[in-house]
Model the fold of this input.
Amino acid sequence: ALAALGLPDGTYPWDTRSVTITKGTARLDDGTLAGTTLPLLTGVQNLVQWGICTPEQAIALATSAPRRAIGQPNLAVSQAGSLLRWHFDRSHGEPTLTWHRLAVS
Done:
């Protein structure tokens, strides 16, 4: 998703341009598709709801396919893994985005 993830419909600055968000779809001023602001899990649900793929395929697209894309092996059942938890905070002036690793076993 784009940086505008979670923001309501509207027009927002995006690098040197602006992007207009309408129902999760982001478009540049000339109408070019710029991306989505829908969360990944919503995308998984949409793929299944629209009949594009099975739940198993949709889940794999959101989990194992990104790992393959960056050259990481898939996790085996019961294998320990790690996740990143992201946190976006705008409560103290300049917005900050931080993360920390979560151990999964």
Q: What stands out?
A: The chain has a mean pLDDT of 81.
